[in-house]
Design brief:
Elements: H1 3-16, H2 27-30, E1 42-46, E2 52-58, E3 65-72, E4 77-82, H3 84-87, H4 96-105, E5 110-111, E6 116-117, E7 123-128, E8 131-136, E9 141-144, E10 152-157, E11 163-168, E12 171-176, E13 182-184, E14 193-195, H5 200-206, E15 212-214, E16 220-227, E17 233-239, E18 244-250, E19 260-267, E20 273-275, E21 284-291, E22 297-304, E23 309-316, E24 322-329, E25 341-342, E26 348-352, E27 359-363, E28 369-372, E29 380-387, E30 392-397, E31 406-411, E32 421-422, E33 429-434, E34 440-447, E35 450-458, E36 463-468, E37 489-494, E38 501-507, E39 518-523, H6 541-549, E40 553-557, H7 567-570, H8 580-593, E41 598-608, H9 610-621, E42 628-632, H10 643-650, H11 657-663, E43 675-681, H12 690-701, E44 707-711, H13 721-739
Parallel strand pairs: 3-5, 39-40, 39-41, 41-42, 42-43, 43-44
Antiparallel strand pairs: 1-2, 2-3, 3-4, 6-7, 7-8, 8-9, 10-11, 11-12, 12-13, 14-16, 15-16, 16-19, 17-18, 19-20, 21-22, 22-23, 23-24, 25-26, 26-27, 27-28, 29-30, 30-31, 31-32, 33-34, 34-35, 35-36, 37-38, 38-40
Helix pairs in contact: 8-9
Domain Dipeptidylpeptidase IV N-terminal: 126-451
Domain Peptidase S9 prolyl oligopeptidase catalytic: 544-740
Protein name: S9 family peptidase
Length: 741
């Protein structure tokens, strides 16, 4: 039985068990409380003592207001630990830095948004409304650590729990719990100098949200000193409903200067700062920093500006001597990862795509390869744990199918790397957290048929208990709409050149009339480091369900350049974006043309961000296939986007100006023949609104008619219920007017 058949049968059985309801899904309901996905926990963590699992959960009356909860493993009871309203219930005020940080993290909400455990498991730490709170699990009380007009961010416990650290006004502070004394560890932060903070491209493109790291023995911290003075100032407007803010943003557009970045160490008393010599070349990236367990050596990853060289270097904080442990190179680019793990003997686990697929390798402490741990034409997602005592490496990956994520284990010895053992049982998508004693794991699971569930398992996969069964019973918020819920069909197509298999997902109206032809909306992202066709539940699918219920066929296809398929699938986009991606989407539409229920004269496309770019490129370059399109927050000229992302895929403009020109939407505007709607948030600090204003002018100069919707105050993620409802109503109304389903 194929995966595609299993998915269809699973969802079909789930829906067949439900009673028939007549409520019709609305856009208003999609973005209202309670969530249609059910009330499922997020930010799950095992306590260090193994006695509880903690998590954040939205309030029933406000799914975006989060409280801190626990599940006690002894008595199997859920308990509210901290009600965020008890700490602070008024409107929250965030610093501009914290607003930007959350936008980079793609998190939205209020209340308790993040937390950390002390090393002994007796306390929790969390920021709220710009201050720091310490919660004692033994006393069950919360204590306010800071009460300042300034904002504290990036709050951490020290490894042994003796200190609390945070960033205030661009400097690192340490608060000693025993004495209540606060120390400022760096002094020159402010203005263009940021200590212990991650720069824009690190947050947005490297997945690094911090800029400082405690040594395991708590005696020193490593940190990055960021000097933004070389970065050009982008003067832009943030347009709100009642005001226009003139923003001077240090935005590193491709081909321009990045920040100057330095790596340093500081002792916990703040008496001595020592800078690490990272070499004569200063136009570099430092994407990752890690301490070795002995606290005497620090490692950092040195990445070249063109992202074709990555070195793992070690630095001895006493002798100040350095060694290069390993070097990765590529003719295209090197994807970053978080899969470096040091073992007790100083050896380490490392991930590499050197054979075309991301796999795990074991190195000696001097950087000599000991063994390849995983191997095959599939990719590892992430390293989860290393059980040295029993000799197992645990990781998530795609050994069974690229459409699902599972937990696997492989011998630390490297024996038979082609034969890894799957641990998770159910078909679908698993996000796993393994306990510190390697005896159990938490499974945050979903499938196309089942909203997220959280369960506790033995390390061998045996189910122990539910933390959140989230069963689709009569009490579930989704149940009133299940009678009209549509199961997708999964399949694959050969690319036009025969070089790749392209996976797709197809939704059809449940009440299709024989002989009738239906309009199609192709929902697209199409960019790197993303995947849309998976056996996974997702809130983005609610709009798809709504469209299907309005009489649309909805189609999604992962083109080349997207994630989890290996480098041969990713690299064809190098130095020319919007080319092979469009070709592959056309392959999908050619398949749609073969389906008797598809009206090929009513095929539209919709996407946001890179998907917005793809919507423009398909409408401009493939108007014979796409008759109407919606482009959200699109990049229109890659010269306007940031260094780390753009140069990774297009190289430096000086080395590939022709590729930049060909990847821009502007050479193809004359090809527009169908209806086009463009929307953009007017305070977008990621894909700058300039992308759309430049498009507006070019379209007007070409006498091309189009529709435009702008959102005052909205950033790139288009947050907020009112914005979401209006935006999606606008999109649906646009397609209804042109396709009349």
């Amino acid at each position: 039985m194929t995966l595609f058949t299993r998915v269809a049968l699973t969802l079909g059985c789930a829906l067949a068990l439900q009673p028939v309801y007549a409520e019709q899904l609305s856009l208003e309901r999609i973005y209202s409380s309670p969530s249609l996905s059910g009330q499922t926990p997020k930010s799950l963590k095992f306590s260090p003592d193994g006695q509880r699992v903690t998590y954040l959960q939205g309030k029933k009356e406000d799914l975006y207001r989060y409280d801190l909860w626990e599940y006690n493993l002894a008595d199997k009871q859920h308990r509210l630990l901290v009600d965020s309203n008890d700490i602070f219930s008024g409107p929250e005020t965030l610093s501009d830095e914290e607003k930007a940080r959350r936008e980079r993290q793609r998190v939205y909400g209020s209340g308790i948004m993040e937390y950390t455990f002390s090393s002994d498991g007796t306390a929790l730490l969390f920021p709220l409304n710009g201050d720091v709170y310490y919660y004692s699990l033994t006393e069950q009380t919360a204590r306010r650590i800071t009460d300042t007009p300034e904002f504290e961010t990036d709050v951490k416990f020290s490894p042994k729990g003796n200190y609390i650290s945070f960033i205030r006004e661009q400097n690192i502070y340490a608060y000693e719990l025993s004495s209540g004394k606060e120390r400022r560890l760096t002094k020159d932060g402010g203005g263009l100098i940021k200590n212990g903070m991650s720069e824009f491209v690190a947050q947005e493109e490297m997945g690094r949200m911090t800029g400082y790291w405690w040594a395991p023995n708590e005696q020193n911290l490593a940190f990055l000193r960021v000097d933004e003075s070389p970065v050009q100032v982008e003067i832009r407007n943030e347009i709100y409903a009642e005001e226009i803010k003139l923003i001077e943003q240090r935005y590193p557009a491709t081909g321009t200067n990045n920040v100057n970045i330095q790596l340093a160490t500081v002792d916990v008393k703040g008496k001595r700062i020592r800078f690490v010599d990272t070499g004569d070349e200063t136009d570099i990236y430092l994407p990752r920093v890690n301490w070795i367990p002995d606290s005497q050596q620090l490692t950092y990853q040195w990445q070249s500006r063109n992202q074709q060289t990555l070195e793992l270097r070690s630095y001895n904080i006493k002798s100040r001597r350095q060694n290069t442990l390993l070097t990765e190179t590529s003719d295209h680019w090197l994807n970053l990862h978080d899969d470096l793990r040091f073992l007790s003997d100083g050896s380490f686990i490392w991930a590499s795509e050197r054979d075309g697929f991301k796999h795990l390798y074991h190195y000696s402490k001097k950087g000599k390869l000991k063994a390849q741990l995983t191997k095959g034409d599939w990719v590892v997602d992430s390293l989860k744990a290393v059980d040295e005592k029993n000799g197992w490496v645990y990781f998530t990956g795609r050994a069974d199918t690229p459409l699902e994520r599972h937990l696997y284990k492989a011998p630390l010895s490297g024996k038979s790397p082609e034969h890894v053992a799957r641990v998770t049982k159910r078909n679908g998508y698993h996000d796993v957290t393994i306990a510190g004693d390697y005896q159990t794991y938490l499974d945050d699971y979903s499938s196309i048929a089942q909203p997220k569930q959280v369960s506790l398992h033995q390390i061998g996969g045996e189910h122990l208990t539910w933390l959140s069964e989230n069963k689709l019973d009569e009490a579930h918020p989704l149940t009133p709409y299940l009678s009209d819920w549509v199961q997708p069909e999964f399949g694959s197509l050969k690319s036009d050149d025969g070089q790749a298999n392209l996976y797709y997902k197809l939704y059809k109206p449940s009440n299709m009339a024989p002989g009738k032809q239906y309009p199609v909306i192709v929902r697209v992202y199409g960019g790197p480091h993303a995947q849309r066709v998976t056996n996974q539940w997702g809130s983005k699918e609610y709009l798809t369900q709504y469209l299907v219920q309005q009489g649309y066929v909805v189609f999604q296809l992962d083109n080349r350049g997207s994630n989890y398929r290996g480098t041969a699938f990713e690299f064809p986009i190098y130095e020319k974006l919007g080319d092979v991606e469009v070709t592959d989407q056309i392959t999908g539409v050619k398949y749609l043309h073969t389906l008797p229920f598809v009206d090929k004269e009513r095929i539209g496309i919709y996407g946001h961000s890179y998907g917005g770019y793809m919507a423009l490129m398909t409408m401009f370059k493939a108007g014979d296939y796409f008759k109407a399109g919606v482009s959200g927050a699109p990049v229109t000229d890659w010269m306007l986007y940031d260094t780390h992302y753009t140069e990774r895929y297009l190289n430096h403009p000086q080395a590939n100006q022709a590729g930049y020109n060909a990847s821009s939407v502007f050479p193809y505007i004359d090809g527009l023949s169908g209806a086009l709607l463009v929307y953009h948030g007017m305070a977008d600090d990621n894909v700058l609104f300039t992308n759309t204003t430049k498009l507006i002018k070019a379209m007007q100069d070409k006498n091309k008619t189009f529709e435009l919707m702008t959102y005052p105050g909205s950033k790139h993620s288009m947050r907020g219920k009112a914005v979401k409802v209006h935006l999606n109503s606008t999109i649906v109304n646009f397609f209804n007017r042109h396709f009349q389903p």
